[in-house]
Design brief:
By secondary structure, this protein is mainly α. The chain is built from seven helices and two strands. Helix 2 packs antiparallel against helix 3, helix 2 packs antiparallel against helix 7 and helix 3 packs antiparallel against helix 5.
Length: 172
């Protein structure tokens, strides 16, 4: 089967189209995060990094949907739905830390390698960018990047839920 045939089969049913759109959305959010980090110079805090992992799972499900045997598994959209629920939860947690609603992790500036000498450790600390989870590096319309990620994650969660629901109807 060619890639074009696989893509055509992927979009042939509403459940597949919703899942493909959700996976593409996660890939786009990841690309945006890397753009802000590498092109705009906004170093991420640890909680920002945590929020990337569920999108990596969601984006990885897109190519998995091109494989017919995986495409038929009801677990695929459920895994995407779970990943976006985790992403939305992490985004809410981070938003609360940014707004002072609750405390963030005590290691928000990151950890160091325990195998370093004292001089190496001091040098690493002095050279590391200090990024606190409480600091908002970018915002639009009064919402931080974490808040926007939460809203986007809820939208992607809805797409994964639609894919699961439509896939269940098609199998049932």
């Amino acid at each position: 089967m060619s890639l074009a045939q696989g893509a055509a089969g992927l979009l042939a049913r509403p459940s597949r189209a919703a899942a493909a759109l959700a996976a593409a959305g996660s890939a786009g959010l990841l690309a945006g995060a890397f753009f802000f980090q590498h092109a705009m110079g906004l170093a991420p805090c640890p909680m920002c990094i945590w929020q990337r992992w569920p999108h990596a799972v969601g984006a990885a499900l897109g190519p998995a949907l091109l494989i017919p045997a995986l495409r038929r598994l009801s677990a695929v959209p459920l895994l995407g739905l779970a990943a976006m629920a985790v992403s939305a939860g992490l985004a809410l947690l981070h938003t609360g830390v940014e707004r002072g609603w609750w405390d963030g992790p005590s290691t928000c500036a990151g950890g160091q390698d325990a195998g370093m000498s004292t001089d190496e450790l001091l040098q690493a600390i002095l050279e590391a960018p200090l990024v606190r989870c409480t600091d908002v590096a970018w915002e639009m319309a009064g919402l931080s990047m974490a808040s926007w990620n939460g809203l986007a994650s809820l939208g992607l969660l809805a797409l994964w839920a639609a894919a699961a629901r439509a896939g269940g109807r098609a199998r049932g």
